[in-house]
Design brief:
heterodimer; A: alpha/beta; 8-stranded mixed sheet; 3-stranded mixed sheet; B: 324 residues; mainly alpha; MetI-like fold; two-stranded antiparallel sheet; 11 helices; 2 strands; 74% helix
Chain lengths: 389, 324
């Protein structure tokens, strides 16, 4: 036992312990620097009165620590919003968002362990049955684009039926008459199409298969709409980067990724023929147009793929926040709803959406969202969630 | 030291004896508690997995294990494609990695001079330190392309007459999964084999050479039989790692739920399907994935038990070739 009593080793042990404790405390005390948001936009004019009669910064004196969990797709956008809100508007409101996936978000929201959830696909009837107090709030729109690797081909045009056949494996070669008919004047190679899909369960796959189910009865019966369907052909890549990696390294490959990812990484993607028969390039605006062209029911649970409208991109979808209609505690719900009010009314927050390559909601939807936010209650329905300003 | 035995405490040192007995008791209690906690953790893992997987166990029954369709959209779950993928990739990696690792270990111990064997040894061990995700990315961008363009066609040329080896090489697929696992478990098996081979007593080597053996005969007759159980243990260590390896395999295996009809087709392993689909899974899909995890856990346990039995069996009958 001599080593223990040796003063030198004892001193060293004490020094090491205090360094360790100091490092731990320093690490904890540091600010939360998320790598996701590389650009924080300046907050818009806080005092301006909005259509709903309340200023955008109605929540500036709130104090709360909010937790949310859900989809990975909007995570960069939400992180940027929460950071800007905390730094520029309401320094007392800290939001912790965990991008565990839509499924995890719905699970936690249903269990009541988080203040809000997030999901790309709207909750199914089963899921809604387990969480009857859920209110969907659409925050932004995302689009799914088809990226390809064809040497010598600068631009590619496809339509829903052909795309479904490619992914079903019935169209096998690039110079198939169906593809050639859509791309007059383009020299397509006489090679097998290497189909690539997302191997991990994701909202992107859900939107993509939802679109294919709408445009192809064959797809609907054989495969259906799902986050992780039984792909008839092709190979899988994990995540947007996995799919891109496989497509880039495989000649004659085609795969689908999110527009946010494709835009940031400057990938080449195909124009799709929409319901109105026009070829549309996927952009932030054409995805917004898809939402404008669709009829939105109360509750916002709708699919906007294959939407009407000349400029609508056919593979687009809302991404939703899930909030409680009335059962949440006001101490948590009010700061949350105040922050959502800011998201929809602050020009800086709305500008962030386009900067990060997401699509903002169409303007026509704003009055509906305002009404929804104003209708949210807390403490069992006793009080309105939104501050009276 | 007098005074420590329970029966005859020395009067003046009575306090010392009691403190030492309490110390012993405390030591036993602490170590026993630690062991109990570890056992408790294993039991807790089994229990929680079974509990979460229960809806799937109840609904899918035994058909789960040999069912060949995994379709969350239609709520049909059968894991045979994943078991197939896991077994093929792991056993392939086990066989080839062990062979190569033993050869490398023999080279390093028996053939190479010290100034070669030390750096090479260190480099091979470094392979074990590379993170799984780095392997996966390298597998997609470098190894996969190499397999598709060069290695794969060679394999099809040589072995193409066997139906299973007749296919078009792609970047991702069962073969890429096999290759990446081989590379990943190689350093583990090699490091342990090298130590085991180096531990063979000199007397064995000297004895067999004295009997007139050549270098290879000496290795074959004296060194390898002596080291056999250790090498087997190393191989099992490698197999256990291969079965559980998730991220690298997920990135290169192709992720197709159909049973591959040739070795280059995309496939799936149990760990990969959980890694890919668990995040977004709800309801019965989630329970089915947890049941896959349970099956994987049971498989790992069985492999470890079989390994122990095998090593025990081999060690029991083992004796040195050259008797002292």
């Amino acid at each position: 036992m001599n080593w223990f009593r040796n003063s030198r080793t004892g001193w060293l042990a004490g020094l090491a312990a205090s360094i360790a404790v100091g490092a731990l405390l320093a690490g904890c005390g540091g600010g939360d620097d998320t790598a996701a948001a590389t650009k924080t936009s300046a907050p818009g004019t806080p005092a301006a009165t909005t259509a709903g009669g309340l200023p955008a910064n109605v929540g500036k004196d709130d104090r709360a620590s909010l937790t949310g969990a859900g989809a990975t797709f909007p995570a960069p956008l939400y992180q940027a919003w929460f950071d800007d809100y905390n730094k520029g508007v309401a320094k007392g409101v800290q939001v912790n968002y965990q991008p565990v996936g839509s499924g995890g978000g719905i699970n936690q929201f249903t269990a009541g362990t988080v203040d809000f959830g997030a999901s790309d696909a709207p909750m199914s009837d089963d899921e809604l049955g387990k969480a009857p107090d859920a209110q969907h709030v659409p925050t932004a729109i995302g689009a799914v684009v088809l990226t390809y690797n064809l040497s010598g081909v600068q631009s590619l045009k496809l339509d829903g039926d052909t795309l479904a056949k490619i992914y079903l494996g019935t169209i096998k070669k690039w110079d198939d008459p169906a593809i050639a008919a859509l791309n007059a004047g383009v020299k397509l190679p006489s090679a097998d199409i290497q189909v690539v899909y997302r191997s991990d369960s994701s909202g992107t796959t859900f939107v993509f298969t939802d679109y294919l189910s709408k445009v192809s009865a064959d797809w609907k019966t054989k495969v259906g709409t799902n986050k992780a369907p039984n792909w008839p052909t092709g190979q899988g890549g994990k995540g947007n980067d996995g799919v891109t990696g496989v497509v880039k390294n495989t000649p004659n490959a085609i795969g689908y990724v999110e527009l946010t990812y494709a835009a940031t990484n400057k990938l080449s993607f195909a124009d799709m023929k929409n319901k109105a028969g026009k070829f549309v390039t996927p952009t932030v605006d054409s995805a917004s147009a898809a939402a404008a062209g669709a009829t939105i029911p109360a509750g916002y649970r709708v699919s906007i793929t294959n939407a009407d409208g000349d400029t609508s991109y056919p593979i687009a979808s809302f991404t939703y926040l899930l909030v409680f209609k009335s059962t949440a505690k006001c101490s948590q719900q009010t700061p949350l709803v105040d922050m959502l009010w800011w998201v929809f009314h602050d020009s800086g927050a709305q500008a962030t959406i386009k900067e990060l390559s997401y699509s903002p909601l169409p303007k026509a939807l704003l009055p509906l969202v305002e009404a929804t936010l104003q209708g949210l209650k807390c403490d069992g329905g006793a009080k309105a969630s939104l501050k009276a300003g | 030291m007098a005074g420590l035995t329970a029966g005859h405490p020395v009067r003046g040192a009575r306090g010392l004896t009691n403190r030492l007995r309490t110390g012993d008791w405390l030591f036993t209690a602490l170590t026993g508690a630690a062991a109990l906690v570890m056992v408790g953790v294993i039991v807790a893992i089994f229990y929680s997995l079974t509990h979460e997987a229960w809806p799937s166990i109840r609904d899918n029954g035994a058909g789960f294990v040999w069912g060949t369709t995994w379709d969350p959209a239609k709520e049909t779950f059968g894991v045979w494609p994943f078991i197939f993928g896991t077994l093929v990739t792991s056993l392939f990696a086990l066989v080839f990695a062990t062979v190569i690792a033993v050869l490398v270990a023999l080279f390093l111990v028996e053939v190479a001079p010290g100034w070669i064997s030390r750096p090479v040894s260190y480099l091979v061990e470094l392979l074990a330190a590379i993170p799984s995700v780095v392997y996966g990315l390298w597998g997609v961008f470098v190894m996969g392309v190499f397999i598709r363009d060069h290695f794969g066609p060679v394999v099809t040329d040589v072995l193409g007459w066997i139906p299973f080896f007749d296919g078009t090489p792609l970047i991702t697929g069962l073969f890429s999964g096999c290759m990446i696992l081989t590379i990943m478990i190689l350093p583990t098996v090699m490091a342990v084999s090298r130590d085991v081979i180096a531990a063979v007593p000199r007397s064995q080597r000297e004895g067999i050479v004295a009997l007139g053996a050549t270098r290879w005969e000496g290795i074959r007759l004296a060194v390898l039989p002596y080291a056999r159980s250790g090498i087997m243990g190393a191989a099992i260590l490698g197999l256990a790692r291969a079965v559980g390896e998730t991220l690298a395999v997920t990135l290169v295996i192709g992720n197709s739920v159909k049973i591959p009809d040739n070795i280059f087709a995309p496939a799936y392993t149990m760990a990969s399907v959980i890694a890919n689909q668990f995040n977004e899974a709800t309801g019965i899909h989630r329970a089915a994935l947890i049941e896959v995890a349970l099956i994987l856990l049971v498989m790992t346990f069985v492999i470890n038990v079989v390994a122990r039995l095998l090593v025990w069996r081999v060690t029991k009958g083992q004796r040195a070739v050259v008797q002292e």
